[in-house]
Amino acid sequence: MDLDNNLKSVKHKIVILSGKGGVGKSTVATQIALSLKQQGLKVGVLDVDLCGPSIPRMLNVEDKDIHQSSQGWVPVYPDPSQTLAVMSIAFLLNKKDDPVVWRGPKKNAMIKQFLSDVVWGDLDYLIIDTPPGTSDEHITVVEGLQGYNPDGAVLVTTPQAVAVGDVRRELTFCRKTKLPVLGVVENMSGFVCPHCAECSNVFSKGGGEALAREFNIPFLGCVPLDPQLSQCLENGQSFVEAFSSSPSAQILNKIAETLHQRTAMNGSIS
């Protein structure tokens, strides 16, 4: 069983990080993946948030099962085109509400298995959604990607100073582990009215952009709160496809296009 080739067949690997929970990291991960898929690319989403695996619901694959082949685990595909592949601990639980009560070593072993044993096939992008923080799981992901030329990390924050402060620690983590930073996304930046499309600042604004400027890294964009996006996530629909004309969808598509252009042109950004 040549497990070494499972990641080698993936052209680009992007890690989605945030130092704080509740900033919409999984939302950004899924929408970037769906937008890249919409551009005609083959994409995989690896959910390594072992204690809070929300990716399967967001992509409407909660009822799917994974299968074992001679080369490893076969990921779940939401549709027959097989242009989007998904892997999550949720597919291995007996019931979707079962908690994952594991100590660090068992979590790390599972992440290593996800990185080596999943038969992704020829993918253009693998989007890796991580839990909040800078703990064992993140170190395991970064170490597991060494030798496979990961493109880098996208950091997700909300505008408030408390969230930006946690993401600042995440930037330090990236530098210490030599993981390139592709850019910062400021999520929940304003609220889009579903009736008139006017954007109002519910929270403060500009924290993510200021952070990117402070560390001299790319700022990828501000994604406002959008009730239509929340509804799509609840129903497992593709927001960037169903509401392509909305301001939030256009911003998410632009973020995905920017990442694709930069990674395709430069290989990685430091």
Automatic annotation (TrEMBL):
Record keywords, A-Z: 4Fe-4S, ATP-binding, Cytoplasm, Iron, Iron-sulfur, Metal-binding, Nucleotide-binding
| Keyword ATP-binding carried by entry | yes
* Name under which the protein is recorded: Cytosolic Fe-S cluster assembly factor NUBP2 homolog
Residues making up the signal peptide according to the UniProt record: none
GO molecular function terms listed in the Swiss-Prot or TrEMBL record: 4 iron, 4 sulfur cluster binding; ATP binding; ATP-dependent FeS chaperone activity; metal ion binding
Q: Can you name a GO cellular component term?
A: cytosol
CDD domains, per the entry: Mrp_NBP35
One family from Pfam that matches here is ParA
Residue numbers binding ATP: G19, K20, G21, G22, V23, G24, K25, S26
Role played: Component of the cytosolic iron-sulfur (Fe/S) protein assembly (CIA) machinery. Required for maturation of extramitochondrial Fe-S proteins. The NUBP1-NUBP2 heterotetramer forms a Fe-S scaffold complex, mediating the de novo assembly of an Fe-S cluster and its transfer to target apoproteins. Negatively regulates cilium formation and structure.
Instruction: Tell me the Gene Ontology biological-process terms attached to this UniProt entry.
Output: iron-sulfur cluster assembly
For this protein, the record's Gene3D superfamilies field holds: P-loop containing nucleotide triphosphate hydrolases
Q: Which family does it belong to?
A: Belongs to the Mrp/NBP35 ATP-binding proteins family. NUBP2/CFD1 subfamily.
Checking InterPro entries in the record gives: Mrp-like_CS, Mrp/NBP35_ATP-bd, NUBP2/Cfd1_eukaryotes, P-loop_NTPase, YlxH/NBP35
According to the record, cofactor stoichiometry and binding are noted as:
Binds 4 [4Fe-4S] clusters per heterotetramer. Contains two stable clusters in the N-termini of NUBP1 and two labile, bridging clusters between subunits of the NUBP1-NUBP2 heterotetramer.
Keyword Disulfide bond carried by entry? no
- Residues noted as binding [4Fe-4S] cluster in the record, renumbered to the chain: C193, C196
Top-level division of the source organism's lineage: Eukaryota
Please state the protein's primary subcellular location. cytoplasm
Q: How does it assemble?
A: Heterotetramer of 2 NUBP1 and 2 NUBP2 chains. Interacts with KIFC1. Interacts with NUBP1.
Q: Which organism is it from?
A: Stichopus japonicus (Sea cucumber)
List the cofactors.
[4Fe-4S] cluster
Q: According to its UniProt record, where is this protein located?
A: Cytoplasm, Cytoskeleton, Cilium axoneme; Cytoplasm, Cytoskeleton, Microtubule organizing center, Centrosome, Centriole
